[in-house]
Amino acid sequence: MKNILKTLTELQDVDTQLAEIEAHKGNLPQQVQNLEAAGAEVQGRLEAAQAKVEADKKELKTLGSSKDEYKTKLAKYQDQLYLVTTNREYDALTNEIENVKSHIQEIVDQQGILTDEVEQLEEEIDALTNRQTELKENLATSRKELTSKTDLTNARQKELETQREELADKLSKRYLRKYERILQVRGQAVVPVKRRACGGCHKQISDQLLFEIKQGNRFIECEGCGRILVYPDSEDDK
Ligand SMILES: [Zn+2]
Question: Ligand 1 center to residue 195 CA distance, Å?
Answer without folding.
Answer: 13
